[in-house]
Amino acid sequence: MQINFLGVWSSQILSIVRIVAAATFFTHGTMKLFGWPAPFEHPLNGLIYTAGVLEVVGGLMLLVGFYARPTAFVLSGLMAFAYFMAHGSRGFFPVLNGGEPALLFCFVFLYIAAAGPGTWSIDGRAGRH
Questions:
Q1: C-alpha–C-alpha distance, residues 114 and 69, integer Å
Q2: 39/49 Cα distance (integer angstroms)
Q3: Distance (Å, rounded) from C-alpha 54 to C-alpha 72?
Q4: Does a structural domain hold residue 4?
Q5: In a domain, 76, yes or no
Q6: In this predicted model, what pLDDT tens digit does every residue of 58-69 receive, in sequence order?
Q7: Which positions, given as ranges, span the membrane (predicted)?
Q8: Is residue 39 assigned to a domain?
Q9: To 10 degrees, the CA torsion angle through 109, 111, 114, 120?
Q10: Domain with 99 in it
Q11: Residue 124 to residues 12, 67, 106: CA-CA distances in angstroms?
C-alpha cells in the first residue's frame, strides 16, 4: 500500500492551490477598487485603497506565478497586518472575530513564499521556482 500516492503530483497541486488562492484573493481587491463582483461595504480610505491595489496587482502576479515567492511574502505580510488591525482586536478566536480568511491567506501565502509557485507558473518556465 502506497501512503504517499499524491506525492508525484505535489508540484501540480501546489500550483492549483496558488492559482485558486490568488484568484480568490484578487476578487477582494476588485471589490474594493471596482465594486466587482459585489460593491465594497465600507468607505475607502488610504489603507483600504492600498490593500486593494496590493490585492489586485499581487493577486494577478501570484495567479500566473510571476515573481511568486516575493509576491507571496508581501501578501502574507499584508494579511497578517489586516488580521491584527481589523480582526485581532475583536477577540482571540478567528471563527468569532471574522479573521479566518485573513489568517488562512496569510499562511497559504507564507507557504508559497517558502515552497515556490509550483510547476505551472511563469517562474517555473523561467527556471525561478
A1: 7
A2: 14
A3: 11
A4: no
A5: yes
A6: 999 999 999 999
A7: 46-66, 73-96, 102-122
A8: yes
A9: -80
A10: 11-125
A11: 11, 10, 22
**pTM for the complete prediction?**
0.92
Region of residue 11 (phi > 0: left; psi between -120 and 50: alpha; otherwise: beta): alpha
Count of structural domains, the chain: 1
Check residue 1 and give its pLDDT: 55
Whole-angstrom distance between the N-terminal and C-terminal Cα of the chain? 31
- Listing DSSP states for the chain in one string gives --S-TTGGGHHHHHHHHHHHHHHHHHHHHHHHHH--SS--SS---HHHHHHHHHHHHHHHHHHHTSSHHHHHHHHHHHHHHHIIIIIGGG-S-HHHHT-HHHHHHHHHHHHHHHH-S-SSSHHHHTT--
**47 is written with which cell numbers?**
489603507
Task: Please report whether residue 3 resides in a domain.
Answer: no
